[in-house]
Amino acid sequence: MDGARLREQVTERRTAYRHWFGVVAPDVIAADGTPQFAAPAGATTLAGLAASPGRVRGRARVVQDVAAALALGQGDILVTRATDPGWTPVFPLVSGIVLEIGGQLSHGAIVAREYGVPAVVNVAGAMAAIRDGQPITVDGSTGQVVLEQVVQPAESPALAVPA
Questions:
Q1: Which residue out of 72, 107, 110, 146 is catalytically annotated?
Q2: Mean pLDDT per 10-residue run, the chain (163 residues)?
Q3: pTM above 0.85?
Q4: Fold assignment, 43-147
């Protein structure tokens, strides 16, 4: 295979990787072939597995990968797919953790307990249901994540200026 064909193949595979990385797999496929997701649009409470006890309210930060974790601030709540040892330095910074994938013995659950950070894992559809910056409450004792609705302030009427 010549160099030009190899470069073309690399480009095609990178494009395919970016595409498939962004595809969210359904939790279940119904008998008729339609995908079924656990977190319906407009849900106000998401359920998962209680992984590290405690309750915390804060600003959700939806993070795709560990490189993007640089945007996290002190006290933010980390929302991501899963963690591995590369994420460990982030745990002392955050006040809570929500993971789409994991169980009691997953990396995120174990490290959250070590640091005393409330965590809920195995929360299907969390990254799609939770908006970045949205206030949420993580209850690591019950496995619940409560999404708070952000109320937009009403437009204040223009004040008449006396002539």
A1: 107
A2: 89 88 68 66 82 95 90 93 93 96 93 96 92 95 89 48 49
A3: no
A4: Glucose Oxidase; domain 1 (3.50.30)
